[in-house]
TrEMBL record, chains A, B, C, D:
Any one GO biological process: negative regulation of DNA-templated transcription
Occurrences of domain HTH tetR-type (ranges): 12-72
GO molecular function, one term: DNA-binding transcription factor activity
Keywords: DNA-binding, Transcription, Transcription regulation
Pfam families for the chain: TetR_C_46 (PF21943), TetR_N (PF00440)
InterPro entries cross-referenced by the UniProt entry: DesT_TetR_C, Homeodomain-like_sf, HTH-type_TetR-like_transc_reg, HTH_TetR, Tet_transcr_reg_TetR-rel_C_sf
Coiled coil location: none
Ranges of the DNA-binding region feature: 35-54
Protein name: TetR family transcriptional regulator
Amino acid sequence: MGAVKNKRMPRAVREQQMLDAAVRTFGQRGYRAASMDEIADLAGVSKPLVYLYLNSKEDLFTACIRREAAALTTAVRAGVQPGLPADRQLWAGLRAFFTHTAENPDGWAVLHRQARTHGEPFAVEVAAMREELVAFVTQLIVVAAREAHRDPSLAEREVAGLAEALVGAAESLAAWANATAGVSAKQAAATLMNFAWAGLGDLMENRPWTPPQD
Amino acid sequence: MGAVKNKRMPRAVREQQMLDAAVRTFGQRGYRAASMDEIADLAGVSKPLVYLYLNSKEDLFTACIRREAAALTTAVRAGVQPGLPADRQLWAGLRAFFTHTAENPDGWAVLHRQARTHGEPFAVEVAAMREELVAFVTQLIVVAAREAHRDPSLAEREVAGLAEALVGAAESLAAWANATAGVSAKQAAATLMNFAWAGLGDLMENRPWTPPQD
Amino acid sequence: MGAVKNKRMPRAVREQQMLDAAVRTFGQRGYRAASMDEIADLAGVSKPLVYLYLNSKEDLFTACIRREAAALTTAVRAGVQPGLPADRQLWAGLRAFFTHTAENPDGWAVLHRQARTHGEPFAVEVAAMREELVAFVTQLIVVAAREAHRDPSLAEREVAGLAEALVGAAESLAAWANATAGVSAKQAAATLMNFAWAGLGDLMENRPWTPPQD
Amino acid sequence: MGAVKNKRMPRAVREQQMLDAAVRTFGQRGYRAASMDEIADLAGVSKPLVYLYLNSKEDLFTACIRREAAALTTAVRAGVQPGLPADRQLWAGLRAFFTHTAENPDGWAVLHRQARTHGEPFAVEVAAMREELVAFVTQLIVVAAREAHRDPSLAEREVAGLAEALVGAAESLAAWANATAGVSAKQAAATLMNFAWAGLGDLMENRPWTPPQD
DNA sequence: AATGAATGAGTGTTCATTCAT
DNA sequence: AATGAATGAACACTCATTCAT
């Protein structure tokens, strides 16, 4: 049995307990391998109650995705101060991102690994969140280009590709940082900032980007 | 029923047909959702024959991973000429990578999405291949740094992080290029080269990296 | 379909129904040839319920063995009055044994034929019961020898062999009595008592052992 | 693979190899658990050849039963000298029986355990052999009774029961002797002779039957 | 005399889901 | 607000058996 059985709780609380159990189970076992039995057990309730509140396995998984996606985007947004220069904003966003994914490995696994692996209905859900992150990065690139008085004809698709690459690198580094002992969220963010802002070419000339002190 | 039933084929041929069907099914449905019935049907053989030749679902999936991993690394290696400068090598490797993944979407899905999502035995298989790619990139970075007479004390972990970010960006761009109409392998490679070699900072100052004519 | 479907019964009752069906099916078909489908059908429930309550075919078979072994030893023990002379005790035990096996042919088949034929895990279960019967007989022989003031150096292995022979004869006669029309439990017991107590030699000299009137 | 593959052997030899493999496999695994694959492999031939020569699994098992039954009855008959007194004949027969079963444990397992456990068609086969042994014992009892000038009205069923008990005890002791370290065929036979000829009652009075010196 | 290639039919087991209370 | 009882449908895997050579 999972949690201690506290009987007669208000629905909202029970639902969160179920989602907690579901995120953990889905994150560790995967969508198909996770059984409703295990989730109900871990949540400390009977299976019919899970169905009463969350309708079906698909709906339950979708609810997990939405909750974890909202938590992640909220965390990133909360970490960023809109007024700052583009590089400071990106730095702050990356730190928030790596911190949140490190602290919520199961939620991150649900979003990054499971949701995108198990068919359209779920991939669509997670795509919305990813869009938001990509849009955030895209806007930063555009703003930075404008600030640098760069040719405004910078192709939209080119920017989209860059943003995609940056987000992809971030996702990959999140997994790497979590799996590699001794790599903190801050270090992961610094690595990516160096890569993204200065590029390997600059690095070769010994001018790494330096994170601000905080 | 999937393929036309060609009866009485030598074992080696049948095995490749089964692997073709399995890669397609695993890539599209995922490991758990793919049924041995569907794979056998798509391969145009009966289920017992699949078991006779490939032993079990796990072994079949592992065989898929190995075949696709070998195909990908072979393609990348074949695309690279060892003698060239680091940036030319990276460029060639990326082009080969994006070309191969675009031409083998199911194989790429098996490697990138399914194998890493469904537990240790499979993740280990794919990790070996990824190690190879990361090692290739790592070595390029080290060589480039030496060529640029850069401080040789470049921390190992720092390089590892950069290589990880680059490979992660490549993996992410592969999915993006395949999903976005009109983005060729060459364009995806160029986008990533710009990002990796010059960085966003350089881009802001209007000095994009230019692919060589070929 | 086997039994009439009585829906919604408490677990304990359903379990007994399942064991009834399983003993019958295992006893008649054998362990391997008995299918869980048939057992579930005969019990009037669906297969998943059998698995929910009894876990697996192995566990189900083991549960059958334990139940039937307990029933048999209980019956034999209940038939014997400890204070009586050895021959009276043996007589009572044999009557109980033949009566019980005649009334529970499937249970007896499970114990005597199937359990001992299908591998260690089951043979071990049944061996415990057989030990008990052999021990009962062994102790009677020892007591009888003491009562007869016989040389107490009667070798242990000799006694073990005699007990083994007696129990083996009983097992064999149980099958014979059940298969031969008109042979009652009492007659089977009398035959074995004559054989065991007086031996063929005595029989030749016309001194058969006579069962007490009851 | 089991045996070394000697190609192109005469049919009669191949058949014996197959039966050897089948007896071993059936004896150790049981009828259902033994697979034709394993038997063919152990015999060093391909499965179709087994079917070509022995037709089906049922026929193969039946052939095993017949061969082993014939071997056992032949061994017992060969051990007995018809002219001798009844007790000497019984003694010789038992020795032959225990010796043969100890030397052919798989064959004995096929006859005693497997054949009687797996349905009518096989039980019938083995019953024929058992009849023969029971008949041999029955005749000995009748002869002994006549020699002892006993009342010739000795009920047929009574004799049948005694013979059944004796054979059952022998079967049981064969298993016991094989499983108990240090119990030889001769000792097993002596134990049973004591039990059968003198009975427990005589034993109590210290007059055990003594085997002749040979 | 002998076999590599192939399958129809079935088995144990699991799971998402519902009913009755 | 909550659950014990129950199942339809599917799935991985095996096996006796045959065909074509």
